[in-house]
User: Fold this.
Amino acid sequence: MVLNYHNARLKGLLPIGFSKNAKPPYPILHFGVGGFHRSHQAWALQQLLNKHPAKFSNWGITGVNVMPQDLAFVKALRAQDGLYFVQRYAPEGTQTTELITTIKEILHVAEDYDTILQRIASPETKIISFTITEGGYNVDLSQNRFIWETSTVQEDLKKQGIPKTVFRILAEGLKLRKEACDEGIVLLSCDNVQHNGDVLRLALLEFLHRYDSSMIDWVQQKAAFIKTMVDRITPVTTPQQKNDLLQQVDIQDNCLVVCEDFFQWVIEEHPALADFPLQEMGATLVDDVAPFEEMKLRLLNGGHSLTGLLGDALGYDRIHTAIKDTGIHSVYMHYCNKEVIPTLSFINGVHYNDYVEQLVARFGNPMINDSTARIISGSTDKLPKFVLPVIWDQLRQNSPQIRIGVFILAAWYYYLDREFKKNQMREVQDQHRDLLMQLFSEPGWEASMFMDRVPMLHSIKDAPIVRELFLQYVNDFLSREARAVIHQLLQQV
Ligand code: CS2
Assistant:
């Protein structure tokens, strides 16, 4: 039996107090409905609705996807009336399965552009939130520069056809909102980007400069750009997991999300958030979100990249097996203790050593079954946000501790080099794959040119000590067994 309202009701699966009477527009419109949004924000809203079904009966999310490859998913979720299960696993193995009903409407820009604009223009829409990935903001963080060269941005500046970026949709939608109701809006960024709300502001305002500068003043006055830290490990669901669910509940869910039990959502306080029950959704409101973002991006996300890349080098395809390798585990612990933690600010009540211990347990959770491939994907955008800031901060110290940070970059290079040599670079999942392919195919290409030619690495290209270490580690990887290279690193740190 397939999952939809009818079948879920028949089987008594709908949450207590569930009402199907809610009508759009809903208070939240979300860009980027992938696994993470569904295990995190949409799940959190479900907790609120479960507690107060009557009070928040019209609360829900209009999900919007923009990437052409997401159309099939949008159709699959729509076929299930927006319903899907979240299956959470604690490191000890406890499993919880919940039906999520908060995505009331799911739209794709290729088919529903006018509806999306109407939703943005409606005064009923109060929050527009985003999980558009690290690269989706299209900002070079080392220079705080909007990247105009991106082809989708260039297309959107022509104001023709279906929008390719959220920026054009926002420009058009907010213009209609200004004319229709002139009401303010909360723009809530939920991506793994330091100062994500500021980065969103920069990107949107820059885009408007060339697209429609008449909107700049309105956006500056009426849009509140909120910063958040989001956390819940959410891998790509496997066919086996869908099959297991079918055996358990006798219902076929094509949009199942599997994730860990751990959940964290830290949001920076802002007057524009006063009316929203974010705490009841499980969020923590703080004066300054930056230290939480730094902690999470550097220890968790950077640690993930380390585990994924070294894991792949040693032949592991799963994060939970890679982190249990004693060599990788030791490198990770050294990285946290010697390189990352000294760059972090004090957070009242947080003990970084405990946080790291907890991360090791979270990475090691076998039920999450996260792949090294997912973690490695998008590294061109991820590493500058997860790892380079640690190197920048360390370089400001007298005796900078940067060996492992640079080692992660070298392991990434080694990964790309292997893919190239296997003639598999086309399989590399990265927004900048074409650039990477072009570089590795150039006659006379060598690792010493990498930092100069990959714009996302420019912020470290002029540090001789970084270049020297990078080349040394790349040469080690290219000439010796990865196990021996890791062993040697451990003797140096
Ligand atoms: C991961 C994140 O994509 C990655 O590289 O580190 O998706 C990570 O699992 C989440 O940020 C956890 O909150």
Observations:
- The CA atoms of residues 154 and 365 lie 43 Å apart.
- The pocket of D-mannonic acid is lined by residues 192, 231-233, 301, 304, 375, 382 (CB under 6 Å).
- Residues 290-313 form the longest helix (24 residues).
